[in-house]
Amino acid sequence: xxxxxxxxxxxxxxxxxxxxxxxxxxxxxxxxxxxxxxxxxxxxxxxxxxxxxxxxxxxxxxxxxxxxxxxxxxxxxxxxxxxxxxxxxxxxxxxxxxxxxxxxxxxxxxxxxxxxxxxxxxxxxxxxxxxxxxxxxxxxxxxxxxxxxxxxxxxxxxxxxxxxxxxxxxxxxxxx
Amino acid sequence: xxxxxxxxxxxxxxxxxxxxxxxxxxxxxxxxxxxxxxxxxxxxxxxxxxxxxxxxxxxxxxxxxxxxxxxxxxxxxxxxxxxxxxxxxxxxxxxxxxxxxxxxxxxxxxxxxxxxxxxxxxxxxxxxxxxxxxxxxxxxxxxxxxxxxxxxxxxxxxxxxxxxxxxxxxxxxxxxxxxxxxxxxxxxxxxxxxxxxxxxxxxxxxxxxxxxxxxxxxxxxxxxxxxxxxxxxxxxxxxxxxxxxxxxxxxxxxxxxxxxxxxxxxxxxxxxxxxxxxxxxxxxxxxxxxxxxxxxxxxxxxxxxxxxxxxxxxxxxxxxxxxxxxxxxxxxxxxxxxxxxxxxxxxxxxxxxxxxxxxxxxxxxxxxxxxxxxxxxxxxxxxxxxxxxxxxxxxxxxxxxxxxxxxxxxxxxxxxxxxxxxxxxxxxxxxxxxxxxxxxxxxxxxxxxxxxxxxxxx
Lengths: 176, 458
Prior knowledge:
The complex is a heterodimer of chains A (176) and B (458). Chain A has 176 residues and is mainly α. Chain A contains 8 helices and no strands. Chain A has helices spanning 2-5, 9-28, 34-50, 61-87, 103-113, 117-127, 133-140, 144-165. In chain B, helix 2 (23-35) crosses helix 3 (37-54), helix 11 (246-260) packs antiparallel against helix 12 (290-298) and helix 13 packs antiparallel against helix 14 (345-377). The longest helix of chain B is centred in the last third of the chain and has 58 residues, at 400-457. Chain B is elongated.
């Protein structure tokens, strides 16, 4: 990233190739529409391009990148919630509708969707983006101990849901 | 999954799995895991959850976005190089939301403060106006004392004014209608002068009382001019002067006023600390003595600006006198009708009402006439005198302690005024704001809850 900030455009290509799929996966696990996930991922990389000069190597590039992605995701959620609240636009589900034939995976995604919003975000950032507790705490602007307790709570709740509660299908979300 | 009391917290097991423990802590927790089957089970469940999540895969991103992002990545370094130097870096991503909220709160507070203070100042100015309204008549000399006293006592009016023509002065309701207008007018002048001098005796200086008689003849000559059809002119003079010493100039002005029978209708003295002293005065000088009085006033210092104006009120006065005469004749005819004819009680009452109305008109016109004639008799001089300021080494200035104390007290007063303004604003605007909160609050709360609910779901 420092090389790109110095004017080396080839460095950006390398970064893009490396983080293209993880960033897309970040959005894909959080929004329903795959096209929208691509759009948000593209917007994230364009933001990286615009902010390259201001980049400081104070943290890992991956942390910085997910911070941008998280802000873009939040902005999208605010707009979507505003449209839904005031304009009556269609609601967006809390989980992506990835075509999947495996029942276990469907059940797992439904279980994740039932978690508390913050707990779910902590769990996803840890499990899929592989961020440390400190990085998650900085991203969500909460203390590290809060991240730890919320992650513990999310894992316990997910285990309970996967162990039996959700398997009986009571109140399972449709269309997921 | 049950978590019993253990020397190692369950969260530590999870942290061990995530590699978030320090080496020493990791060693302790690992040792406990070897011994505790329950914690080992919990650890396996944590791993099971992670393995389940690992099965959540997503499809590959479409290659459509690659071209746009790559192109932007190539173009941006060139643009940055072109605009480097003068570029203002606004690191939006690092803006602290609390800073924005605090700024917004401070802005709202300042707006409320400004509105509150403006309301407070409006209230104070309104009070000041009311005080002026109620106190002003007491400070000014009574312009028409004899007319008012007669009206209160319901005495018949003998003569109409200071300068009423003799041909009209005795034509109204006088039992001994042959009284000489001049003698009546002279008495009125003297009476007026005495009353005026006593009324302005409380002023800083006045020479009216001592010299009133001396200039009675001059004013009577003006009345004679009016009677002869000569022009009546209300004169106004404005003089701005610079003097060497304000107290000395003020004493000189007192002498001039005493000498020529004038008086000060209003006087304001300013003596700012560390600045030039000055005073403004509104003087009334007998018109025939105006030139001489002005000449002496000019000698008190250097005249910076002087302007004179004269408004001819002859036609206005003649018109007023004619209307007054007609009204008096009308009143006399009505009285004759009332005395000589008989009729129904309703007719009598109607005639009396008409007489009262005409009397009111007469009194109003008499007041106007006296005011007009006073403007002619006494020229108005607006005088502004300021001193050439000389800085003095020996000028006593407040000590540091006094200044600190004054600043502290001033600050307390301002803080009190600010709080009072805020309270007044809340009192004045509070009910309206409350109504709007009630009107808009309910639907706003519903929409907000809906927004929060949707926001939590997305």
